[in-house]
Every structure is written in structure tokens, then in C-alpha cells.
Amino acid sequence: MNKKKGTVILADGTPPTHEMALRIMREAERLIVCDGAWRAAFAIGRAPDVVVGDGDSLGDEGRSELARRGIPLVSDYEQETNDLCKAFRYALQTGASGDIAILGATGKREDHAIGNIFHLIDFAEMSAAAAHPIAVTMVTDYGVFEPVLPPGRAWSEGCRVGLPVSMFAPFPGTEVASEGLAWPLDGVNLDTLWRGTLNKIVSDAFSVQTNRPILIYRPHQC
């Protein structure tokens, strides 16, 4: 039996169906669920260890079901952040072990999806400031988003020549250099979100160096 590892946060978007996402959820040491996703967790076949949020999506049925199963509900009613942010903050505060993978954060509403994706940079900065920094990724049914903080990062596992990769630079003044990509980013002005997208890996490893936080997206075939 594989040893369970890391923490999964299941958000209230479209429930994951891709085998990679489901495997990550099955193998997670701990499953934290945003309150609106409690039904999806049970439907996938894994009971949450804890449900976090403001409780507005649970209703009496959800509260009764969680109580019957002995699953704790952590209610956070502040409205400055969404339930995903509350769940991530809870994960850090309660000593998340291993990496954190966020599932179910896209689909349904595009505004929620875009907001959740770019929250990854906030999560990476929160993790970097923690006593024991951990990596955070967002896994969808199509690929993986990963935040990269300065000075950058190098990849070696799972890279195959010709496979796609995209960079998103949400902050002005972002300067990026790269190795192992078909179209090097050295000197490219990433002044719009699309300008670093649709690149290709041309080596068994690639790296990026950046002066501001960016996001990297790689489809599952990577």
C-alpha cells in the first residue's frame, strides 16, 4: 500500500475526474474541503477530514450529515477572502505536511476560476513565510498550475521535447529568463497575461528565472 502523502484542498468548482487528480486525492494524507464541496468529496469516495468555510453552502442537510459522520466544521465568517483562501490558511495554521494540491478550483464560473488560479501566488508567498515552507499546486482535469517566486525554478522530471508550457506574469515590470524552451523569454516584455503562453519544451529540463512572481501551466501530458 502506498504511503499517503501531502494535503489536498477540494474547492467547490467542477469536481475532478482526471486520473491524476483523483490519484492525488486518494493518496493524500489529509483532505480539507471547502464547505460547498462536501457532497463532491463523498461522491468521489473520500470523506473529508475537515470542512472549512463560512458555512453558507452547507445548509441544515450538510451540517447534519457532517455531524453524523463526525467530520469537524471550521466556520470562518470573514468575507475578505473566499472559502479556498480560508481552507489554505487553515492548512498552514494546522501544520500541513508535504505539499498542498488544490483540486476542484476551476469550472462552473470563470470569474471564480480565474480568481482561484491567481490566488496561487498569494498562497506561495504565505507558504514561503511559514516556519516550514511547502509547495502548492493547482491540479485541474487538464493540467497543473504552479506559482514561481523569485529567483525562479528549474524542472527536470517529466519533461519531454515538444510538450507545451505557458507562463503568466500578472505583475508589471516582470523580467524572465529561461533555458530549455523553444522561444526563450530573455528580454521579452511580459506586459500582458498572454505574452508568455504557448511555449514548448525543447530539452529534458528547463528553467526560468524571474524578478516577480509568475505562474507556470503544464498540461498533464507533461
Structural description of this entry:
This protein is elongated. The model has no long low-confidence stretch (mean pLDDT about 90). The chain has a ten-stranded mixed sheet with strand order 4-3-2-1-5-6-7-13-9-11. It has five helices and 13 strands. It has helices at about 20-25, 40-45, 60-70, 85-95, 110-130, and strands spanning about 5-10, 30-35, 50-55, 75, 100-105, 135-140, 145-150, 150-155, 165-170, 175-180, 200, 205-210, 215-220. Helix content is about 25%, strand content about 25%. Helix 5 (about 110-130) links the parallel strand 5 (about 100-105) and strand 6. The chain has about 220 residues and is α/β, with parallel strands linked by helices. The chain folds into two domains: about 5-140, 3-Layer(aba) Sandwich (Rossmann fold), CATH 3.40.50.10240; about 150-220.
Provide a compact summary of the structure.
By secondary structure, the chain is an alpha/beta fold.
Task: Provide the fold topology.
Layout: E1 7-10, H1 19-27, E2 30-34, H2 38-44, E3 50-53, H3 59-69, E4 73-75, H4 83-93, E5 100-103, H5 110-128, E6 136-139, E7 143-148, E8 152-155, E9 164-168, E10 176-179, E11 199-200, E12 206-210, E13 214-219
Parallel strand pairs: 1-2, 1-5, 2-3, 3-4, 5-6
Antiparallel strand pairs: 6-7, 7-13, 8-12, 9-11, 9-13, 10-12
Helix pairs in contact: 4-5
Described by strand count, sense and barrel closure, the largest sheet is: 10 strands, mixed
| SS strand fraction | 25-35%
C-alpha Rg, in Å? 18 Å
Distance between the termini: 26 Å
CATH homology group of the largest domain: Thiamin pyrophosphokinase, catalytic domain
| SS content category | alpha/beta
Question: How would you state the average pLDDT, rounded?
Answer: 88
DSSP summary: helix tally = 5
- Briefly note the CATH topology name of the largest domain: Rossmann fold
Per CATH, the class of the largest domain reads Alpha Beta
- The total number of structural domains is 2
Poorly predicted parts: none
Biggest sheet, spatial arrangement of strands: 4-3-2-1-5-6-7-13-9-11
Based on the coordinates given, report the CATH architecture of the largest domain. 3-Layer(aba) Sandwich
